[in-house]
Specification:
246 residues
Length: 246
């Protein structure tokens, strides 16, 4: 369908197959430019579309070859999905963002970005598939490969906590204890008492499941005694675990 206005001639390809043929006939450069223009218009709210979904904008930025912008909007899409408890959808959006992170030119930036995204991926994976799932294991395994290339202790702690929980449920208590000790070291370095409590809690759980009941009781009682509801409330909210009720 052809129409003419003050802005020039416009073409609308209403049949899906004709749309595909027209799209496929575009060369790579013009196609990326069009996607970039669409994404920019949608982001600015000037495309005549009310409140476009972030994943739509992210898809256009991805097709435009603009990974940073695509990652940002995939992240927003994940946040929106998480707010609706749509955890599988949230994980899917973050997985797309991770794919885009590999396209960043700076290798250090790519590693930092991927680790941050994989840390964000932990909660929806745990909620959707459980602590012992292979998806959690694959995510933490890849994340730990990035540790040497990054400096973010906060992201490392999130990943290590997930790996420790995975190891406990899989009855790999030796590995779980190693992780709890490493988390305690990171907590000391960061002077983060909340993470130190997490490390104590996980250590106590490892000892309990491994049959070291007396030692586990001492560890968990110490954890409870150090817990301050006022001081650690924000940490509990971020991690989704209240030490006193865990």
């Amino acid at each position: 369908v052809e129409s003419t206005s003050a802005q020039g001639t416009h073409y609308a390809f209403k049949h899906a197959l004709i749309q595909d043929v027209a799209y496929d006939s575009l060369l790579g450069g013009p196609r990326r430019e069009l996607h970039a223009r669409i994404a920019t218009a949608l982001s600015a709210g000037t495309a005549g579309v009310a409140n476009p979904n972030p994943e739509v904008i992210a898809s256009h930025y991805a097709e435009a070859g603009m990974p940073k912008e695509a990652i940002f909007h995939w992240g927003r899409a994940s946040d929106h999905a998480t707010a609706r408890s749509a955890n599988i959808e949230a994980a899917s959006h973050l997985s797309r963002a991770i794919t885009m992170a590999t396209q960043l030119d700076d290798r250090h930036e790519a590693a930092e970005t991927e680790l941050a995204l994989r840390a964000r991926l932990v909660p929806p994976l745990l909620a959707a598939y459980g602590y012992a799932s292979d998806d959690v294991a694959r995510n933490t395994a890849r994340a730990t490969q990035l540790f040497d290339q990054t400096r973010s202790a906060a992201h490392k702690i999130v990943i290590l906590r997930a790996e420790c929980q995975w190891a406990i449920v899989r009855a790999r208590y030796g590995r779980a204890m190693e992780i709890a000790v490493e988390m305690n070291r990171l907590a000391r370095d960061a002077e983060d008492s909340g993470v130190a409590l997490d490390a104590l809690l996980l250590r106590g759980l490892v000892e309990m499941y491994a049959g070291q009941l007396r030692t586990a009781r001492m560890t968990l009682e110490r954890c409870i005694s150090l817990y301050d509801p006022d001081r650690h409330a924000a940490h509990a909210l971020r991690q989704g675990v209240d030490i006193q009720s865990a």
